[in-house]
Each structure stands twice: as structure tokens, then as C-alpha cells.
Amino acid sequence: MSEIAVDWRPTASLDVLRRRADLLRRLRQFFDARNFWEAETPCLSHDTVVDRHLDPIEVQASSIGCFASSRVQHRDAPLWLQTSPEFGMKRLLAAGAEAIYQVAKSFRADETGRLHNPEFTMVEWYRVGDDYVAGMELLAELAKELLEADEIERVTYSHAFQQRVGLDPLSASVSELKRRAIDARLSFPDSWLATDAEHDVETYRDDWLDLLLVELVQPHLGLERPTILHDYPASQSALARVRPRDEDGVSGPLVAERFELYVRGIELANGYHELLDSEVLAARNEANNAARLRDGKTPLPGDSRLLSAMREGLPACAGTALGFDRLAMVAFGLESVEQVMAFPIDRA
Questions:
Q1: What is the helix (H) or strand (E) element at residue 121, kind and residue range?
Q2: Distance between CA 60 and CA 67 in Å, rounded?
Q3: Among 30, 59, 150, 207, which is least packed by CB within 10 angstroms?
Q4: Alpha-carbon torsion 144, 146, 147, 153, what sign?
Q5: Which CATH architecture describes the domain 3-146+270-347?
Q6: 175 near 167, Cβ under 8 Å?
Q7: DSSP at 33
Q8: Tell me, what DSSP letter sits at residue 213?
Q9: 234 CA to centre of own chain
């Protein structure tokens, strides 16, 4: 019997898929009750998020006949399956939308495993007028509703890092971070130890922070109750604003107004008090592409219609992206996203 003949069935049980559908219905009710409307934006675009670690899936325009259309600009440029609906949704905000959410199919290359599938369901939302605190509060309300949690814990990145690593991530030297990783017998690429005229020791600072966070901090987050980790290092701001850390009324190092939701040591959501300055975003895109080149990756298009929209004026807002497959997995007490998907990549 051929392999195709025996793996046609879904990896998730029909009971789980029905429960998933009910969870999605409750999520929509949550946003509908707060006067959000459900948006739709393209899965395929000439624009893509420029991130050092996210690799979009490329589609040649000629392969889908775009070269034949006089309406399509940049006919020779590739198209990208979207890693999230962020760009399209922010363009809607710039056009006047005030409170929107989307349940979107999103795509990322080279992501498979217990918590990953190249095609997955992302829930993303934005509300004009929300600041950093309001963004965290909305995420906490949603987590309470869908995870049936009585309480949501909030802890700063620095506090969690110091508790588990023993170093302040905002002031520790790269040498201290490196020594802590070595002492903990963590694995890392040899290139992180190399320096030359172009790559000084600070080049890999965020790599050390990420390694220590993932290996020593994350496994302890959200074990007793859902936990929101916030105030990330400014160097990891992505598309979030930055501000000085408040240390007993005294301004400290810059932190990013970014927050993430964890349950059972698993990241479920990532939110920002959104960056509004197009020039800052363009500079971050350039820095991310430089990092991609150092990593041996192809740079991504730095200019985009989102930058054009931001130049026209993106309203002050907060936004959050949530992995719905992971949410369903933890809500149902399961161990793999395959257990809540009908047909993951191996059976698609």
C-alpha cells in the first residue's frame, strides 16, 4: 500500500477540530463585542516584513502569470507569501480603520516541528488610540476568555532574565552573557566567538540574549498562569516604539514597548506599541538586512507600501499577533500543533 494511501486522514481528531472551530467562534465573538471588524488582506504581496530570523516563502510573479498584466508593477520582482498580515492591516489603519482583527493564513520557510508548520493560522489585531498598557490589557482579557484563566501574570524581561540568568540584560556586557552561556553548557555557533574588523563583539549581543532567554528563561514562563513578558531590550524592538526604562523614578536604559504571552513555556502572542516613524523603520530594515547578509541569507525588500503609508501618517495604535494553532494546542492540553491541524505539511 502506498504512503499516500495511508496518510490521507487528518492528524487531528474530528473532536479536536470541532473544538478548534468553537474556539475560533469564541475569539470572533470577543472582538465583535468590542466593536472590531474583521479585515482581509492579501496572502501574496510584493512587500514582506524584513526580519533577521523570519524567512518568507518566495513566489515568482511569472509563475502565476503576473508578467502578462499591465496593472502589475515591478513585474520581475518576486512576490512573497506573508509571514503575518501586519503590512496590509497597517495600511488599512493609515487609510482610516480604527479597530480591526484578522484570522489569516500565514507562511514561513524552514519552520517545522512540534510548534511549527510552514503554513499556520495567525490572529492579528490593532486598535487606534491604544498605548502599550492598553495593548497588554486587551491581550490579557483575550487570554482569560479563551484559556479560562482567572489571572494573568505580568513580568518585565529584565526581572525574568535576572531571576533565571543572574544578569541584567540591559547592562550586562557581551563577555558576561557569553560566560553565562558557556557555564550553562549551552550550544551555539563558533561564529559567535569570532571577531574581525567588520564584526566586533557587540555584533552578537542579541544572539546571546536570545539564547539565554530561550534556554534558561522561557521554559519557566506561564507554568502556573498565563504570563505576559514585557519591556524587551531596545535592540529587539522590531516594529515597536522604545522608551527609557523607569527605575524608581529615574530614567534607565531604553526598552522596547513590546510584550509576549507565554503559557507552559510556549510563546503564543507578540504585541507592540506600534512604531510610527517611517525613517526609523527604514533604518531598522537596513540593519536587519545587514544581519541577514552576515547570516548568509538573502536580503529582503526594504522599501514597501507600508513605508509609504507611514509617511502619510499611521495613527497611534497597539497591535498583537497570536498563533492560533498554538493557542488551541495549549487550550486543549495537547503537545503538538499537528494535533490541532487537519493537514500539516507532511499530509497537505
A1: strand 119-128
A2: 10
A3: 150
A4: negative
A5: 2-Layer Sandwich (3.30)
A6: no
A7: T
A8: I
A9: 16
At 317, is the secondary structure helix, strand, or coil?
strand
CB-CB contact of 209 with 243 (8 Å)? no
323-346 confidence digits (pLDDT tens): 999 999 999 999 999 999 999 999
Amino acid 289: pLDDT: 95
Where along the chain do its domains lie?
A: 3-146+270-347
Residues 6+ apart with CB under 8 A from 233: 157, 169, 170, 206, 209, 255, 256
What whole-number distance in Å separates Cα of residue 228 and Cα of residue 247? 20
- How far is it, in rounded angstroms, from Cα 77 to Cα 293? 19
pLDDT (average), residues 14-38 = 99
Of 18, 17, 16, 38, the residue nearest 27 (C-alpha): 38
Q: Higher confidence at residue 74 or residue 282?
A: 282
Q: Output b/e per residue, 116-132; b: 16+ Cβ within 10 A.
A: bbbbbbbbbbbbbebeb
Mean pLDDT of the chain: 92
CB 55 within 8 A of CB 109: yes
Q: What percent of the chain clears pLDDT 90, i.e. is strictly above it?
A: 82
Rounded distance, CA 319 to CA 93, Å? 11
What is the torsional sign of CA 82, 240, 292, 204? negative
Q: Is the pTM of this model over 0.85?
A: yes
Q: Residue 299: what residue type? A: P
- DSSP string covering 231-271, please? EEEGGG-TTB-EEEEEETTEEEEEEEEEEEEEETTEEEEEE
- Per-residue model confidence as pLDDT tens digits over 160-206: 999 999 999 999 999 999 999 999 999 999 888 865 544 555 678 99
Interatomic CA distance for residues 332 and 330, integer angstroms:
5
Q: How far apart are CA 153 and CA 225, in angstroms?
A: 7
